[in-house]
């Protein structure tokens, strides 16, 4: 079903959502609930999705290999497959809250499922998502502003180019979280232990050095208020391949709507390193 983005609802910051089993959450999304997924299903990894025709799959794989910070690959489904080890009994076509369709390098709208646009030649890539390490930040007493404010995370296209691969090229996309100045080193240390879900930040402070002119005008997600004494901290973002799809004029591609992730059955700790 096609969904106007303005109809998206926010249910973040809800302890009941945080305690849900991933399978239950995916069933809620299949039933039509649309919400950003930050703060959902604490303890379980979330994933970005990029889905392309088989003819483009090698380009995406090579792009991810050359740009591992924004594109850490958690899993790849064979052409036409809709489920796999990351989501037992799930379906990548229906189990994220919201999807984006791309046609000829243009965003062609959002939808609540991909059933009527699915093709048997489509290859699905699941990429790590920084929502996975947010629980670790919170457990360390570092606030996550977009969860506290009940909005989607702020994401920005930067002026930093990615490493081109095959027919794909485009800008690095980053997510931003304000962090108390006294806790930035802790945030770097904690998130660096999760390299499979973007790991340590790519930049701290000075958004203009990334080519970001206005933090109040994100390219994806919602503007996040930066409390006094906090500094903006930027992590590589799994929306980066969707930005490359746009920049490269890919004829047809699908992805999650930014911030509306696929919640997997994989525990966060499996992506944590000592």
UniProtKB/TrEMBL annotation:
Family annotation (HAMAP family): Hydro_lyase (MF_01830)
Family, similarity comment: Belongs to the D-glutamate cyclase family.
Domain of life: Bacteria
PANTHER family to which the protein is assigned, alphabetical: D-GLUTAMATE CYCLASE, MITOCHONDRIAL (PTHR32022:SF10)
Cross-referenced Gene3D superfamilies: PSTPO5379-like, PSTPO5379-like domain
Tagged with keyword Lyase: yes
Lineage: Bacteria, Bacillati, Actinomycetota, Actinomycetes, Micrococcales
Protein name: Putative hydro-lyase GCM10009767_28320
């Amino acid at each position: 079903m096609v969904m106007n983005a303005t109809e998206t609802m926010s249910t973040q910051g809800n302890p009941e959502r945080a305690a849900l089993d991933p399978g239950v959450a995916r069933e809620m999304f299949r039933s039509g609930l649309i919400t950003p997924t930050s703060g959902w299903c604490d303890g379980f990894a979330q994933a970005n999705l990029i889905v392309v025709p088989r003819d483009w799959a090698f380009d995406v794989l090579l792009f991810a290999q050359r740009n591992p910070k924004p594109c850490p690959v958690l899993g790849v489904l064979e052409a036409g497959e809709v489920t796999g080890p990351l989501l037992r009994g799930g379906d990548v076509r229906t189990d994220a809250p919201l999807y984006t369709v791309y046609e000829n390098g243009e965003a062609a709208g959002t939808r609540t499922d991909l059933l009527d646009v699915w093709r048997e030649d489509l290859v699905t890539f699941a990429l790590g998502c920084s929502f996975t390490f947010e629980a670790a930040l919170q457990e360390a007493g570092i606030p996550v502003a977009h969860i506290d404010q009940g909005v989607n995370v702020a994401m920005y296209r930067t002026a930093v180019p990615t490493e081109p691969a095959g027919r794909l090229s485009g800008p690095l996309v980053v997510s931003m979280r304000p962090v108390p100045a006294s806790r930035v080193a802790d945030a770097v240390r904690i998130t660096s232990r999760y390299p499979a879900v973007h790991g340590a930040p790519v930049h701290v402070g000075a958004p203009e050095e990334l080519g970001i002119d206005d933090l109040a005008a994100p390219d994806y997600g919602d503007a996040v208020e930066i409390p006094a004494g906090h500094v903006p901290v930027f992590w590589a973002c799994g929306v980066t391949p969707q930005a490359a799809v746009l920049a490269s004029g890919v004829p047809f591609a699908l992805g999650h709507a930014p911030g509306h992730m696929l919640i997997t059955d994989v525990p966060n700790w499996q992506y944590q390193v000592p």
